[in-house]
Automatic annotation (TrEMBL):
<dbReference type="Pfam" id="PF06841">
    <property type="entry name" value="Phage_T4_gp19"/>
</dbReference>
<dbReference type="InterPro" id="IPR011747">
    <property type="entry name" value="CHP02241"/>
</dbReference>
<protein>
    <recommendedName>
        <fullName>Phage tail protein</fullName>
    </recommendedName>
</protein>
<dbReference type="InterPro" id="IPR010667">
    <property type="entry name" value="Phage_T4_Gp19"/>
</dbReference>
<dbReference type="GO" id="GO:0005198">
    <property type="term" value="F:structural molecule activity"/>
</dbReference>
Amino acid sequence: MSEDALLTRFNFLVDIYASQYGGDTGLAQGAKGAFSEVTGLELTLEPVTFREGGYHAGPRQLVGKTTATPLVLKRGVSLDAAFWQWIGRCTDGSYPLPYVSGAIHMRPADGEASGDQASWSFVSGIVTKVKSADLNAVDPKDAPIEELHIVHEGLSRGAA
């Protein structure tokens, strides 16, 4: 079974590429992984209440700090050595950390290899947790990556 055919069995395709913020030299471009579930597609904006003199209708509401929730990729696989190299560089304790940018593509339910239903992009991401699945799989669709946590500095929704 080809790598592309195997990756189309999953709902979400993840691409990573060098962010040019340092630590990413030597990482291959376009590393891929595929996952069954993605959580953490969330940004929280902290509200700031501001009382303005002379404005008597009540306090003004402004937006303060934006917080990005870590991305959690669940039950997936990557056959790409560059993807595993990035994970290794994040977890081996060396500096500078290999910050990468990436994209998460939601695949069509029929498993077609082309066309996205939706996509999200993240910037300056690093791995903070890797949990491998038990190695008792007999079917290639069984996932060797149980969870992969990525902290990042920004998230945006792409065009479908």
